[in-house]
Amino acid sequence: xxxxxxxxxxxxxxxxxxxxxxxxxxxxxxxxxxxxxxxxxxxxxxxxxxxxxxxxxxxxxxxxxxxxxxxxxxxxxxxxxxxxxxxxxxxxxxxxxxxxxxxxxxxxxxxxxxxxxxxxxxxxxxxxxxx
Length: 131
Hints:
The chain is mainly beta and 131 residues long. It contains 2 helices and 11 strands.
């Protein structure tokens, strides 16, 4: 689902949260969409389409914790993983945006701790590329 605006007047406190997020945007020419992931879902590794998204992507994680895996496009053995807890925010830009595949792993474990199954929603904000 693509969003063109947020119903800030219907949700007390939303304006404050959105203002904090806007402060993280490297540019203001954006598009926003929601991404739902089921409790057994995953997102396979990929680099987002560079023609559909600009130079940066920001994600806000809500719901069950999952692991974000970043894997070099030139060397799959070069990777790192980040735990995305509910409320976390991440920004992909520059070499991380273009030189690493990213994926959301199925629920499992992170550094020896088991992650609980559960649904998650990501608010994805992307720069609209200039055409």
